[in-house]
UniProtKB/TrEMBL annotation, chain A:
Keyword annotations of the record: Calcium, Cell membrane, Cytoplasm, Lipoprotein, Membrane, Metal-binding, Myristate, Nucleus, Phosphoprotein, Protein transport, Repeat, Transport
Span of domain EF-hand: 26-61, 110-145, 151-186
Tagged with keyword Protein transport: yes
InterPro entries: Calcineurin_B_homologous (IPR051875), EF-hand-dom_pair (IPR011992), EF_Hand_1_Ca_BS (IPR018247), EF_hand_dom (IPR002048)
GO molecular function, one term: calcium ion binding
Name listed for the protein in its UniProt record: Calcineurin B homologous protein 1-like
Pfam family, one: EF-hand_7
A GO CC term attached to the entry: nucleus
Family: Belongs to the calcineurin regulatory subunit family. CHP subfamily.
Automatic annotation (TrEMBL), chain B:
Organism: Sinocyclocheilus rhinocerous
Source lineage: Eukaryota, Metazoa, Chordata, Craniata, Vertebrata
Principal place of residence: membrane
One Pfam family, short name: Acyltransferase
UniProt similarity note: Belongs to the 1-acyl-sn-glycerol-3-phosphate acyltransferase family.
Protein name: Glycerol-3-phosphate acyltransferase 4-like
Gene designation: LOC107758670
Length: 195, 450
């Protein structure tokens, strides 16, 4: 009797993922089904090509950076756990969680972690600093050929000037957080998953 | 020993002979003769009603099962926003910190980031190229995704279903298919010997209809035609949404069309050559397909001659899984004649008609079709449309597409069906980049003005 997607996901795995990410049981099985439909090679892991096959992602100027965020350093396959860990950053913050005592460390979808996810998109070499070069590269991805080098350079300089408080011409994570302290990060970096 | 076998032997021969004769008589009376005259005994509809009752019973049994509740592969993974679509500019301005308008804000990245991850969780395109998921199980293992052993009774029923489908229905259908195709080739060649004129056209129509009807019965296709007063007429083009090669048989068994296609070798080639003897179809050589002007010219010439049949075209260019209609290629809409849109919607409960050409070959696909319970579909003939003043081919194509999608209850998508195999064009990404650049540069222009 043919059984596909959900029988490959065991109850123990679902429980562990639930604890780690905070998704509900039904959300996890739904997302497993999505994972499975993206996994064309049927080997239980997604490659970068699998992501690039999504047209709406392929036309996103930061598509490649976002795809990169799913893959741990130096790897080109992401399994379901890794997939869920990354998606967990976008889980909306529920009211009862805001007051929860962080005994098990910070939840993946906390404000800090959401900000760190965005920080990582800028920080190309993962050295926890956004240099002028890195900022320029990301800006270039977002605007394509429509803005000149000089103009883009001055935009980058202005941004670093505004944010840099310790004068090292780079933006550290704490400087990044300070710059965005008035932004409603919880809402802007959340996706309404179906229950 | 020998004398014991003898009467046994002749008994077997006699039984075989009788069953053969009975079989063929039944075939003739119930299937071939009605196909010739275009009438129906209503056996297929009765079959369809009993199948529905059976499936509902089976689903009920499964829901009462002790094992895990069947979790359905969902059709959507995100909560639907019913807000009107907001442009990139608006969203980014909303998101910024307010105060003096900066050119670039580090929070701009949130917009792209969220959109990107949303498309990873759910997107409109990739799910159109795999078969649609069903709510109730139709006793075909191939459409079952989460079957756990629920009860022996259900398993037994499934087993009986397999026996019936592969042991009885499949051979019956294969015989019919061969008969239908064989008759098509032979009879069209005969009609081809007649001199051109009304008699030939009349005979050709009859022959084509009869053979397609036999093919329809060979698939146990139960088709409901709506709004037949809008059926395509000579000198026009009929466009329809494409789900499988069977679409051709479904439409051609109710009306006569001129087919368009590439010349094939093998059996298809034989059929093509025979068909074209009886009435003009448009077959292109492989090399000619690339030449768009040549294609357009041949189509216009055909359409200009009102004695020729309406052309049947599938503008999506590829098979889509019947939940949506994708971009129509504008070629057929540039010709400037009346377009007769047709919407085809299959009922997936009885057998999935979608041909996933990257997974199955043609023969495999046909075997799947013939071992399903039935193919049930509805065909709607929409009122004819023509290009309006000031409308270009692309806008006209989109208008027709929207009408077909609305009638058939399908989603109307702007994405190209070619995405099934190919990558999305760079130009779409460049559009997004251009829009964002306007946000950055636009505000600096305002600043310099003040």
């Amino acid at each position: 009797m043919g059984s596909r997607a959900s029988s490959l996901l065991r109850e123990e795995d679902i429980e562990e993922i639930k604890k780690q990410t905070g998704f509900s049981h039904s959300q996890i099985t739904r997302l497993y089904s999505r994972f499975h439909s993206l996994d064309k090679g049927e080997n239980g892991a997604l490659s970068r090509e699998d992501f690039q096959r999504i047209p709406e992602l392929a036309i996103n100027p930061l598509g490649d950076r976002i795809i990169n965020a799913f893959f741990p350093e130096g790897e080109d396959q992401v399994n379901f756990r890794g997939f869920m860990r990354t998606l967990a950053h976008f889980r909306p913050v529920e009211d009862n969680e805001k007051n929860k005592d962080p005994t098990s460390g910070e939840p993946l979808n906390s404000r800090t972690n959401k900000l760190f996810f965005a920080f990582r998109l800028y920080d190309l070499d993962r050295d926890d600093k956004i240099s002028r070069d890195e900022l320029l590269q990301v800006l270039r991805m977002m605007v394509g050929v429509n803005i000149s080098d000089e103009q883009l350079g001055s935009i980058a300089d202005r941004t670093i000037q505004e944010a840099d408080t310790n004068g090292d011409m780079c933006i550290s994570f704490s400087e990044f957080t300070k710059v965005l302290e008035k932004v409603d990060v919880e809402q802007k970096m959340s996706i309404r998953f179906l229950h | 020993m020998e004398s014991y076998l003898f009467p046994f032997d002749s008994l077997i021969c006699m039984l075989l002979g009788i069953s053969f004769t009975v079989w063929f008589t039944l075939l003739l009376v119930f299937i071939i003769v009605p196909a010739i005259f275009g009438v129906s005994f209503g056996i297929r509809r009765l079959y369809m009603k009993s199948l529905i009752k059976l499936f509902e019973w089976a689903t009920l049994r499964m829901d009462n099962g002790e094992t895990l509740k069947r979790s359905l592969p969902p059709t959507s993974y995100l909560q639907h926003h019913h807000n009107p679509p907001v442009s990139l500019e608006q969203e980014i301005h909303e998101m910024r910190r307010g105060g003096a308008e900066p050119e670039f804000d580090m929070s701009d990245i949130f917009y792209f980031c969220r959109r990107g991850v949303e498309s990873i969780v759910d997107d409109e395109v990739t799910k159109r190229f795999t078969a649609e998921e069903l709510e109730s199980w139709n006793l075909l293992t191939r459409s079952n995704y989460n079957f756990h052993h629920i009860s022996t009774r259900l398993t037994a029923l499934w087993g009986v279903g397999v026996l019936i489908r592969y042991g009885f229905l499949l051979p019956l259908r294969v015989t019919l298919a061969f008969t239908g195709v064989g008759l098509l080739v032979v009879l069209t060649s005969i009609v081809g010997l007649f001199p051109n004129g009304r008699m030939k056209n009349y005979l050709s129509d009859k022959v084509h209809l009869m053979c397609y009807r036999i093919c329809v019965r060979s698939l146990t296709a139960i088709i409901t035609y709506h709004d037949s007063e809008n059926k395509p007429k000579n000198g026009g083009i009929c466009v329809a949404n494409h789900t499988s090669p069977i679409d051709v048989i479904i439409l051609a068994s109710d009306g006569c069309y001129a087919m368009v296609g590439q010349v094939h070798g093998g059996l298809m080639g034989v059929i093509q050559r025979a068909m074209v003897k009886a009435c003009p179809h448009i077959w292109f050589e492989r090399s000619e397909v690339k030449d768009r002007h040549l294609v357009a010219k041949r189509l216009s010439d055909h359409v200009a001659d009102t004695s020729k049949l309406p052309i049947l075209i599938f503008p999506e260019g590829t098979c889509i899984n019947n939940t949506s209609v994708m971009m129509f290629k504008k070629g057929s809409f540039e010709i400037g004649c009346t377009v007769y849109p047709v919407a085809i919607k299959y009922d997936p409960r009885f057998g999935d008609a979608f041909w996933n050409s990257s997974t199955f070959g043609m023969v495999n696909y046909l075997l799947h079709m013939m071992s399903s319970w039935a193919i049930v579909c509805s065909v709607w003939y929409l009122p004819p449309m023509s290009r309006m003043e000031g409308e270009d081919a692309v806008q006209f194509a989109n208008r027709v597409k929207a009408a077909i999608a609305r009638k058939g209850g399908l989603a109307d998508l702007l994405w190209d069906g070619g995405l099934k195999r190919g990558k999305v064009k760079e130009v779409f990404k460049e559009e997004q980049q251009k829009l964002y650049s306007k946000v950055l540069v636009g505000s600096s222009e305002d600043r310099s003005r003040s």
